[in-house]
Amino acid sequence: MSYTNPPTTPRKSHTFDDYTLSEIRRAATTGIYDIRGAGAKRRVPHFDDLLFLGASMSRYPLEGYRERCDTDVVLGSRYAKKPLHLKIPITIAGMSFGSLSANAKEALGRGATIAGTSTTTGDGGMSTEERGQSQTLVYQYLPSRYGMNPEDLLKADAIEIVIGQGAKPGGGGMLLGQKITDRVAEMRTLPKGIDQRSASRHPDWTGPDDLEIKILELREITDWQKPIFIKVGGARPYYDVALAVKSGADVVVLDGMQGGTAATQEVFIEHVGMPTLACIRPAVQALQDLGMHRKVQLIVSGGIRNGADVAKALALGADAVSIGTAALVALGDNDPLREADYQKLGTTAGAYDDWHEGKDPAGITTQDPDLMARLDPVLAGRRLANYLKVMTLEAQTIARACGHNHVHNLEPEDLCALTLEAAAMARVPLAGTDWIPGRDRL
Amino acid sequence: MPTVDLAATDLRALNQALHQLSAGTNETQWEIVNPRGSHAVAVGVNAPVDITIRGSLGYYCAGMNRQAKVTVHGSVGPGVAENMMSGEVVVKGDASQYAGATGHGGLLVIEGNASSRCGISMKGIDIVVKGNIGHMSAFMAQAGNLVVCGDAGDALGDSIYEARLFVRGKVKSLGADCIEKPMRPEHIEIVGKLLARAGITDVKAEEFKRYGSARKLYTFNVDHADAYG
Q1: Per the count of CB atoms within 10 A, which of A166, A191, A196, B91 is most buried?
Q2: What is the ipTM of this complex?
Q3: Distance, in angstroms, between B121 CA and closest chain A CA?
Q4: By residue range, what is the domain housing residue A71?
């Protein structure tokens, strides 16, 4: 055996990893930035970095299967004559007909209705399938106003004014031409097959002072019946939530950077906005400082996956959560059963995010009639309902273990953090200490 | 004819009364006095009635109007007739920003001047302005006709889709992807009819120039990236 000039193991750069290299090559070849769907894929501090403490000597638990733990939530009690009464604190986030197939929208409505919760329209208006199958439907009021009309506004159960979303705070929307079919084009008053841009600002108001008047108009048009939600992307949650309250919102929807989008630039998704975990406490602080916590309800979205995430968001002060990506997965998105189809598209199940291309093998993010037919809206709706039920049961289990008879009674004192970052963001102690970084001095 | 004095009646009561009108109502003539710059006056009306407003208004007068004819003897703030679906709104004075924004149908007539972003994101509404319009008008305009008897400000029709813009006077500048197009006989007919509906008789349709989309930005092309800036 010779030890002269021994070889080293080939070493790849952490900075220039395989993905980064592939993106440089892709950019050099095409001359255009990468567009994709979904939310941030990078590792960020998240709910996994928090743990519930549970009850022991100092807290008294509720019996896991026998004692009552309620999950209902009222949204819009500040001004609306008809606030929403939901059975569970998990709603379905806004996703457009156009980016999603009609079958997918119908399935979301079916699943939400079985579970006793709401679903939400998106850019492009209200589809008949969605309204028909949704007992409680929130109508998004977006900068593009595609498909916006007073008839649908009056059919809605609540109105959500979209200022931004977590995947792209400050950005508008995009629906590429291949998904602009005759029906989508007609609903949006655009030529078929063109790239459709949704503006990043509303066309007829600027800033919270104007928004207050816009909300007055919407309330007058709907005779003050419907709750008005304001949705913001996670950017400056303390000030954004405070201004939403000032503008007259009944409900604030706060979407962190893990929240999905139908399509935008990769660089936008991964580099703009804050993690969901970092957004909640400043938002709750704003509500508390204004004396509006629990009066103006807070819905948190962006990376909610299971009942533990739900319980953690509620413990940090949210009134409800909203799911988008997870709901699509429940319908059948990225299912390994379709791996062969994903391989044909140059990807793999679990990584497919070219939702803008309209080639979704699961029939969800497409307008192709053949692909769309793959999604049975009744079956998919049942799957979503099952998933919502499981999440709710999980959240109840945790709440009972912490001694609470309503999931809204969960509180920050039920939590500890596994990392310094999560402790600072969630403003709960690092596990095993009483130290909250950023708040307490060493 | 019901007369509503907004100095004595609150906005909610007025709009509620207007919302309760149906197609067969006998109360087809309404007068609103002392609006004193109120916002959201006569919004969401859905009945074939005439509403005459005496005085100037704030934001969103006649927003989302359907069927009604609303005549304002005064000036209006931002967003007059925003998202109008049908009917007619006539402003005898001037209009602030966003006049007719996102409107899907109906006719909006501004007898004075309209400020910036007139017809922004319009989706089928017809707008006739007797005076001038401000900058960024018809931004991302999708459908409908904007007829301007006076001049247009900077960046007219920026990122326009299929709306038609007709300007009789000077255009300070055109926005991205907006170009001048020939006035063909069908366009002269469109302008002539809209002028007639607006009651403008001292202006000829042949005096207008037409502007619309070059359709070069309909599909993103990196070679056109500078045009987006």
Answers
A1: A166
A2: 0.96
A3: 7
A4: 48-332+375-426
